[in-house]
Specification:
Blueprint lengths: L1 H19 L7 H20 L2 H25 L4 H5 L23 E4 L6 E6 L2 E7 L9 E8 L2 E6 L1
Parallel strand pairs: 3-5
Antiparallel strand pairs: 1-2, 1-4, 2-3, 4-5
Helix pairs in contact: 1-2, 2-3
Length: 157
């Protein structure tokens, strides 16, 4: 009877550890949960009589695969899954790439802190820029100092 208790305890501990991996990422809890499931399979093979030991392993294997497939398919659409992922389109993060459009001396504003690289807005367009010499805080006015080989250098005004 103690083998069945150990078997069930390892199964529940593995499920709990793998489930906790969602909220405390890093891989360690997931690895411990997987080890608990593998140990439960070994305990099942050694404890149960002949036809039931292999059935235990097969059920554990299918349960693991089934749980993984269901998880991948439905978790990102759940309320918790949506709160853990980005909801905005990548369009808002792309920067304008035509560096020849803005001449030297064009004035703009740093959107992100330039340490030394970041994004600035010139004439309503987002541009990847590089601060020349010093870090520039977000919101500061900047001026294009040079454009060479697709790189734009700016200075604080």
């Amino acid at each position: 009877m103690e083998h069945i208790t150990l078997y069930i305890t390892l199964l529940l501990a593995g499920f709990l550890l793998i489930g906790t991996e969602i909220f405390i990422p890093g891989g360690i809890l997931g690895i411990f949960g997987s080890v608990a499931w593998i140990t439960a399979a070994i305990v099942g093979v050694r404890s149960f009589p002949a036809p039931w030991n292999m059935l235990s392993v097969i059920i554990l294997l299918f349960a693991g695969v089934f749980t993984f497939v269901i998880w991948i398919r439905y978790f990102p659409k759940s309320r918790v899954g949506k709160s853990l992922s980005l909801s905005e389109s990548a369009e808002t993060y792309k920067a304008h790439t035509d560096t020849n459009e803005f001449p030297i001396g064009t004035l703009g504003e740093a959107i992100s802190t330039l340490r030394p690289s970041g994004i600035a807005r010139f004439d309503g367009k987002r541009i990847d820029v590089m601060a020349d010499g010093e870090w520039i805080e977000a919101g500061q006015p900047v001026k294009i100092l040079s454009t060479a080989d697709g790189h734009i250098s700016v200075v604080k005004v």
